[in-house]
Specification:
The protein is of the alpha/beta class and about 500 residues long. Among the domains are: about 155-255, Beta-grasp domain (Ubiquitin-like (UB roll)), CATH 3.10.20.30; about 255-360, Translation factors (Elongation Factor Tu (Ef-tu), domain 3), CATH 2.40.30; about 375-495, Rossmann fold (3-Layer(aba) Sandwich), CATH 3.40.50.80. It contains 15 helices and 20 strands. It has helices spanning about 5-15, 20-25, 40-45, 55-65, 70-75, 80-120, 125-145, 150-160, 180-190, 225-230, 340-345, 385-395, 420-425, 440-455, 470-480; strands spanning about 5, 35-40, 160-170, 175, 205-210, 215, 235, 240, 245-250, 260-270, 280-285, 300-305, 310-315, 325-330, 355-360, 375-380, 405-410, 430-435, 465-470, 490-495. A 6-stranded antiparallel sheet has the order 13-12-15-10-11-14. A hairpin with a 4-residue loop joins strand 3 and strand 4 (about 175). Helix 1 (about 5-15) crosses helix 2 (about 20-25) and helix 14 packs parallel to helix 15 (about 470-480). The chain is elongated, with a radius of gyration of 28 Å. The two termini are about 55 Å apart. The structure holds FE2/S2 (inorganic) cluster. The site of FE2/S2 (inorganic) cluster has 14 residues, from loops. FE2/S2 (inorganic) cluster binds near residues 199 and 237.
């Protein structure tokens, strides 16, 4: 019997997604008890697990390197205060274990002494045998060097580097690493935690610590009442976890829980991707006024101030875990006047530092909560933008068994981020990327659905997310439904 591990830690240690681990549990290949797995069982299920190959080992090894840069150290290592508190807690645990062991050792010795005295008084074969058994057993324990529980050892080490958080009532889990606050770590892990400013001013991120220890690491102006403090409330954006923590926190169940926001942001970058017909627009919100949104949603962008006269709605291409830096993929309109905002971008009317109004978020094209089915993203041209946001989110949540991306291009530069997609495919075991070309959107929709029918024997067991022009989405949805994929398994957005 080894060490008991939460699913998040176990997945983290062997370098697989939670979804992949849950699949092994469902299929009876990995026993679990109360949402925990045993490190010995984990090692049997992943016999090829290799410390050298696991991300965990790499992280620890990198920390040891003398040449480690300051930024990376901050990313990996908690602050010295948090580190000291975790080391103190672990040494207390070790001290308790040592006291227990010494107690058991003393007990065995006095038992042996007692047996020896009783045997001398009235010799008995049974007593002599028990004495010998204790003696040889103790010698074996003291003399043996048990093979190390590799996963258990790694978990002990990672407990110092990171803390595990369970959120109630959802039961979702995440790890807090480096200098992250509870809010940053939760958003990074794909949780829809409730928050506002992200900066210690609004109080919207308050949550109750049920068990475990937290520490304030960011300044905050918002003052919790005495009653709230006594009940264990803290601001997630200002605190980090020192030990493993259980929190009671509000989470968005879906788009309806995300408030409408209007923020004046600044253009950070405007550059072409692929050919000159697709632009990457990077917009940054003020530090204390971030955009809360769900992966896959869209916002309306308008030129300057309050005016939304020249505006257009685009899908956010980036992950909600970075709520200040918003990325958009803007295609050159087929004819002038169709999208005045895009026209002004291609005409060079917007420069770095210019103000842009961000209004939203909108739309229900978000990841289905609670589904662990394999996910297929099917995008056409800049329909890749919401797919990109959803993929980053799905990778953070790590709940799906596998992810696939089928990206159809109807324009010459249609696969404008193909390198990034290939990199996902090469780096991740459970990510598959297929690039397709089509003469128009409707044909592309039909053809991609036919490809899915050929590639996926169990198509009906997948969740499919369609994004692109109306003709593409309609054609693909019709083909997929005809192929036996139930309508509730198809999620779509038209761009
Ligand atoms: S998000 Fe505003 S105080 Fe934490």
């Amino acid at each position: 019997m080894g060490q008991r591990l939460t699913l998040s830690r176990a997945a983290h240690l062997v370098g697989v997604s939670r979804g992949a681990l849950q699949k092994r549990i469902r299929e009876g290949e990995l026993p679990s008890h109360d949402g925990m797995v045993d490190s010995a069982d984990l090692l049997s299920a992943y016999p090829d697990f290799d410390l050298e190959d696991s991300g965990a080992f790499e992280r620890v090894a990198r920390i040891k390197e003398e040449s480690f840069g300051r930024r990376a150290r901050e990313y990996m290592l908690p602050s010295s205060e948090v580190l000291a508190q975790r080391l103190f807690a672990q040494s207390q645990e070790l001290g308790d274990l040592r006291r227990h062991l010494q107690g058991y050792h003393g007990l065995v010795l006095s038992l042996m002494e007692r047996i020896e005295k009783l045997s001398a008084k009235s010799p008995s074969i049974e007593l002599t045998e028990v004495g010998k058994m204790l003696e040889s057993g103790l010698a074996a324990v003291l003399g043996s060097i048990e093979p190390a529980d590799t996963i258990g050892l790694m978990d002990d080490m990672l407990r110092i580097m990171s803390a595990h958080v369970t959120v109630r009532p959802s039961g979702r889990e995440f790890l807090v690493q480096g200098h992250d606050t509870l809010l940053q770590a939760g958003l990074g892990a794909g949780l829809g935690l409730n928050y506002g400013c992200g900066n210690g001013n609004c109080g919207l991120c308050k949550a109750r610590v049920v068990t475990g220890e937290v520490r304030r690491v960011q300044h905050c102006d918002y003052v919790l009442s005495e009653a709230e403090r006594l009940q264990g409330y803290v601001l997630l954006c200002a605190h980090t976890a020192v030990s493993d923590v259980v929190l009671e926190a509000l989470e968005a169940a879906g788009p309806a829980d995300i408030p409408e926001q209007r923020i004046v942001a600044k253009v950070r970058k405007l550059a072409t991707m692929g050919s000159a017909d697709t632009l990457l627009l990077h917009v940054q919100t003020p530090r204390g006024n971030r955009l809360r949104f769900l992966a896959g949603q869209s916002v309306t962008l308008g030129l300057a101030g309050d005016g939304l006269d020249c505006s257009a709605t685009y899908a956010v291409a980036s992950c909600p875990c970075d709520d200040r830096n918003l990325y958009f993929h803007v295609a050159r309109p087929e004819s002038p006047g169709v999208d005045a905002f895009a026209d002004s971008l291609f005409a060079g009317a917007l420069k770095t530092g210019d103000a842009v109004t961000v209004w939203g978020p909108w739309g229900e094209f978000t990841l289905s909560r609670g589904s662990s089915r394999p996910i297929v993203f099917v995008a056409c041209d800049t329909g890749f933008a919401p797919a990109n946001s959803l993929i980053e989110h799905a990778l953070a949540v790590a709940a799906a068994e596998s992810l696939s991306l089928y990206w159809t291009a109807t324009r010459a530069d249609g696969h404008y981020l193909a390198n990034q997609c290939r990199a996902w495919s090469e780096a991740l075991d459970d990510f598959n990327y297929v690039a397709l070309d089509a003469q128009d959107a409707a044909t592309g929709g039909r053809e991609v659905a036919q490809t899915l029918r050929r590639d996926l024997a169990d198509l009906a067991g997948h969740d499919v997310y369609l994004s692109g022009p109306q003709a593409f989405v309609a054609a693909a949805a019709a083909e997929l439904t005809a192929a036996g994929l139930a309508a509730p398994r198809i999620y779509s957005t038209v761009l």
